[in-house]
């Protein structure tokens, strides 16, 4: 038998998928979307690619594919709230090779979860004199709560705070010194509904407030959830809100506290004029948490209502005994914090605080 001295080179080249399209997380009520898949490289696509839609049992969602410019566009229809889908596209080359791409799509659930705790300050009994540090007995919608007022910096500002029926908790903090100051207004949901067990339960903690005055650099208004008092010095603590970085520059700020320190992270410029409202949400499971803020003036009605800014507030990693599943104790607090560092007035009107047991959501 005679063997050839060389084998002929293959005429085939690798049929390589293009860059996969980004996953889509759609808001409640969205029923259709499109996804553009770039063709693979290395050979020509033969015929129309095959599209497969993996969907929940009983789902009415459907998918079709057609050429759109240089890409292959998949159109999804009959999507439903709370459903998630995987779109798979298989390309075949003129040489018979196969290349596959996929994309994940989800639609937010309609429900925010079960409402566990609802303090609506607009339904409070009128009460004045809530500015100085102390523990106050207040009545909201016929229920008595303990409101704890604290500060942690040496500079204790002069604060006027009143509960006004139909308006909310009206707070005005005046600092006469150009040094760091803060003031915190805290409630304990655990005192009413028991241990929230944030280690094992997914929780949505929402605060609604108006911003009256927030015009000095380093002004900060945040909503925080923590394990003790004062919340800003407690471990663990998670929070989010607004920070004034400079002239015409208000930003979202995400904060967390571990056993040794508090870490704050700023986003980019969010508003160039003073925000008029803060609707803040902390979605937490243990120390894995995400925060959302916008200027909404009503309670969110879906899991994607708050859209202006979002960021992670929790630990980057859970390692070592310091982050064992027992770091949350049995008493949790929800807190509104005002802080600054100059001669100024910082004023807000807190409308209320709600806590829900949350449906599953991709963090």
Outline of the structure:
This protein is an all-beta fold. The chain has one helix at about 190-195, and strands spanning about 25, 35, 50-55, 60-70, 70-75, 85-90, 100-105, 115-120, 135-140, 145-150, 160-165, 170-175, 180-185, 205-215, 220-225, 235-245, 250-255, 260-270, 275-285, 290-295, 310, 335-340, 345-355.
Features:
Jelly Rolls; eight-stranded antiparallel beta sheet; 1 helix; 363 residues; Immunoglobulin-like; mainly beta
Class from secondary-structure proportions: mainly beta
Question: If you consult CATH, what is the topology of the largest domain?
Answer: Jelly Rolls
Helix content class: under 10%
Give the second-level CATH assignment, the architecture of the largest domain.
Sandwich
Distance between the termini: 65 Å
What fraction of residues sit in β-strands? over 45%
Instruction: Summarize the biggest pleated sheet.
Output: 8 strands, antiparallel
Top CATH class of the largest domain:
Mainly Beta
SSE blueprint:
Layout: E1 24-26, E2 33-37, E3 50-54, E4 62-68, E5 71-77, E6 84-92, E7 98-107, E8 114-120, E9 134-140, E10 143-150, E11 158-164, E12 168-175, E13 181-187, H1 190-193, E14 203-213, E15 220-226, E16 237-246, E17 249-257, E18 262-271, E19 277-285, E20 288-294, E21 309-312, E22 333-340, E23 344-357
Write up what this structure looks like.
The chain has 363 residues and is an all-beta fold. It is built from 1 helix and 23 strands. The strands form 4 sheets. Strands 8, 11, 12, 14, 19, 20, 21 and 23 form an 8-stranded antiparallel beta sheet that branches. Strands 9-10-13-22-15-16-17-18 form an 8-stranded antiparallel beta sheet, with no helix packed on it. The protein is elongated, with a radius of gyration of 26 Å. Mean pLDDT is 88; it is low at 316-325.
């Amino acid at each position: 038998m005679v063997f050839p001295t060389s084998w002929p080179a293959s005429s085939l080249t690798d049929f390589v998928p293009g860059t996969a399209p980004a996953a889509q997380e759609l808001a409640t009520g969205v029923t259709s979307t499109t996804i553009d898949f770039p063709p693979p490289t290395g050979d020509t696509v033969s015929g129309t690619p095959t599209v497969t839609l993996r969907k929940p049992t009983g789902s009415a969602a459907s998918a079709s594919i057609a050429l759109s410019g240089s890409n292959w566009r998949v159109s999804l229809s009959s999507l439903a709230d709370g459903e998630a889908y995987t779109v798979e596209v298989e390309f075949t080359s003129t040489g018979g090779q196969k290349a596959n791409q996929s994309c994940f799509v989800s639609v937010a659930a309609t429900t925010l979860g079960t409402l566990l705790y609802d303090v609506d300050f607009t339904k409070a009994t009128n009460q004045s004199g809530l500015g100085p540090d102390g523990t106050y007995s207040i009545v909201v919608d016929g229920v008595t709560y303990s409101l704890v007022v604290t500060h942690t910096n040496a500079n204790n500002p002069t604060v006027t705070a009143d509960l006004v029926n139909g308006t909310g908790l009206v707070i005005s903090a005046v600092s006469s010194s150009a040094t760091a100051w803060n003031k915190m207004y805290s409630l304990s949901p655990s005192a009413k509904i028991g241990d929230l067990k944030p280690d094992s339960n997914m929780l949505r903690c929402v605060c609604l407030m108006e911003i009256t005055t927030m015009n000095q650099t380093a002004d900060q208004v945040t909503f925080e959830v923590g394990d003790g008092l004062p919340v800003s010095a407690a471990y663990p603590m998670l929070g989010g809100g607004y920070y004034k970085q400079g002239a015409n520059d208000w930003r979202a700020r995400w904060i967390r506290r571990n056993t040794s320190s508090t870490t704050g992270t700023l986003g980019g410029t969010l508003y160039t004029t003073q925000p008029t409202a803060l609707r803040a949400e902390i979605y937490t499971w243990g120390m894995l948490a995400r925060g959302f803020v916008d200027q909404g003036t009503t309670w969110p009605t879906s899991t994607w209502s708050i859209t202006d800014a979002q960021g992670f507030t929790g630990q980057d990693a859970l390692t070592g005994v310091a982050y064992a599943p027992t770091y949350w104790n049995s008493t949790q607090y929800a807190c509104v914090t005002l802080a600054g560092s100059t001669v100024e007035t910082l004023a807000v009107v807190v409308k209320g605080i709600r806590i829900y047991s949350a449906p599953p959501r991709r963090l």
